[in-house]
Write a structure and sequence with these properties.
Shape: globular
Oligomer: single chain
Length: about 140
Amino acid sequence: MAYLRSVPRVWREREIKYRLIGGACRSCGRRFYPYRQTCPACGSEEVERVKLPETGTVEVFTVVRSPPSEFAEQAPYVVALVRLDDGTLVPAQITDVDPGEVYEGMRVEAALRRYRTQGERGIIEYGIKFRPLIQ
């Protein structure tokens, strides 16, 4: 059975997922994504929400060819660690490009895309993915 997410949870997470909201620790200065109330680096709860830059560079990536069943229709797809222009490292899917054209160092920008659909009548979840930056 596919993993189902509740409507209230999807609704609560919409700002973070739609606007690329991360955390900034006031104790150690680290920025991170996704936002959480405790800093993953130092454990401080002195964390504020920050709007992260929408452009960055692919640090490392892999092509997923045998995904979990809920993502089978998207295969093959690329997942990467994107280093945003402020230094924040973000795990993300790379979209709008053939997997064979993705490379380390590729400039990318945030784009709102569909994450998943929970069946024919279920919740459709959207969030940030990254696409090649057209300069």
